[in-house]
Design a protein that fits this description.
438 residues; mainly beta; Ubiquitin-like (UB roll); 16-stranded antiparallel sheet; 7% helix
């Protein structure tokens, strides 16, 4: 290989793209390996999530050498997006358990610059009102040294609520609301550093300060909210993450694997109100079975280590992506849990819808659209030392759930999931989610 030429990067600087290549000037490449090498490097550049399209081509330069041409179509990077979103932990919680209440809506504006200065930096500002009033400021710098191995993140957030959950009863959140008083208030500020020497592995180190306070009435209803009847809680937090990511396409993988280990220490100084350590590990495996069939598996475990864990700091199933499908409406508290997911997918459609006449902005004029039908089965177990206190009948039980679904993969790595799930209690419903399952 002789030279590398890059085309289409009007905003992104060359070195951000070149950082992802495992090719360099002077490399010798076997003709039988060309297609594989081009595909692997194309996926690495695409996984930066800076481009809608990436194409790599070798162009003959002489009898024995080629130049590499990288052609990219940049995404739209500046998003002043109006916020109109649900405050609950999921769409299904809002739709079924909260009776689709419009009082549980957040609104405001979120400004994001995803390729600030053309260096893959991300600058974000959130101004939000409604159910949760929030101010959030973040600045991510992926590379702060010349070798492009170290990066940094700065973050500050503040939020307050007039309604919040204060306990769990029968695996459902119990809420309290006061129109005239702030029921919960939180601050968080910190800095983290990322180290990425090689392509697939990343180490992250973070230090954060956390403060939260609640109205007296919450402590009266649940003295264990912060523990020992306290109305506030503060602590310094240290965390470490290691990820090793060899998925072909991170937004919706077909092949490869993903591993993550994390250690989190909440409280380690005399000023801290708690001392809780937690460890978790996640492993995802993705297989292409041929004929557009794909198999995906996720294994995850988490454990908390502490003499006592207040309600506010104790989470297991029911938040983010940590749940057994079929139990979407339940919150299952615990001090440790295991989760296993298995999904078999069949690609039905992959196309691009061209709408230049309707939307003459090149970053949005082509809509990528893929459809996958799937079937899945999940297992999970959450251990809680004293489930009788909150009548959590799903804690300390083997949970089983499965079903069928349809995934829609489109604009800017967006995934919409339609699922019909059934659990071991034979409860069955249609659920909607906006993230990939594995």
């Amino acid at each position: 290989m002789n030279k590398v030429f890059i085309s289409g990067n009007k905003r992104t600087v060359d070195r951000i793209i070149l950082r992802e290549l495992d090719l360099k000037k002077g490399d010798t490449i076997l003709l039988t390996d060309v297609d594989t090498i081009l595909k692997v490097n194309r996926n690495r550049i695409y996984n930066t999530r800076l481009f809608n399209e990436v194409t790599l081509t070798f162009l003959p330069d002489s009898i024995n050498s080629n130049n590499l041409l990288i052609e990219v179509k940049e995404r739209w990077y500046i998003f002043p997006i109006p916020i109109f979103e649900l405050a609950d932990r999921s769409f299904n919680e809002w739709w079924y358990n909260q009776n689709r209440s419009l009082k549980r809506i957040n609104y405001g504006i979120r400004f994001t610059h995803k390729n600030f200065r053309g260096r893959k930096e991300e600058l974000s500002l959130t101004l939000q009102s409604g159910f949760t009033q929030k101010l959030d400021i973040g600045y991510n710098i992926p590379y702060i040294n010349k070798k492009q191995t170290w990066g940094s993140n700065l973050d500050f957030s503040y939020d307050q609520n007039k309604q919040t959950s204060y306990a769990t009863n029968k695996n459902r959140q119990v809420f309290i609301r006061n129109e005239n008083e702030v029921m919960r208030e939180r601050y968080r500020a910190g800095i983290s550093f990322d180290y990425r020497k090689f392509f697939f592995g990343t180490h992250s180190f973070g230090l954060f300060y956390n403060y939260a306070s609640v109205h007296d009435s919450i402590v009266i209803l649940n003295p264990d909210y912060f523990g020992d009847g306290r109305v506030n809680q503060q602590f310094l937090q240290l965390n470490y993450y290691f990820t090793f990511d060899k998925r072909d396409i991170r937004a919706y993988a077909h092949k490869g694997f993903y591993f993550k280990f994390s250690y989190d220490q909440k409280g380690f100084t005399p000023i801290d109100d708690i001392r809780i350590a937690s460890f978790d590990m996640t492993y995802g495996k993705y297989l292409s079975l041929g004929r557009h069939f794909y198999l995906a598996s996720l294994s995850k475990g988490k454990i908390y280590l502490a003499d006592r864990i207040p309600y506010y700091n104790r989470r297991a199933f029911g938040y983010d992506q940590d749940y057994v499908r079929g139990y979407d409406l339940y919150v299952i508290d615990g001090e440790r849990f295991l989760l296993q997911r298995l999904t078999l997918r069949k690609k039905l459609l992959e196309t691009n819808l061209h709408i230049e006449s309707l939307l003459p902005i090149k970053q949005f004029s082509s809509i990528p659209l893929s459809l996958y039908i799937n079937t899945y089965y999940d297992l999970g177990y959450s251990y809680l030392q004293n489930p009788g206190a909150t009548r959590d009948f799903l804690s300390n039980e083997l949970l089983r759930g499965g079903g069928i679904g349809l995934d829609v993969v489109t604009y800017y790595d967006s995934v919409i999931r339609f699922e019909y799930s059934i659990n071991k209690m034979l409860e069955n419903r249609i659920y909607l989610a906006f993230t990939k399952d594995i």
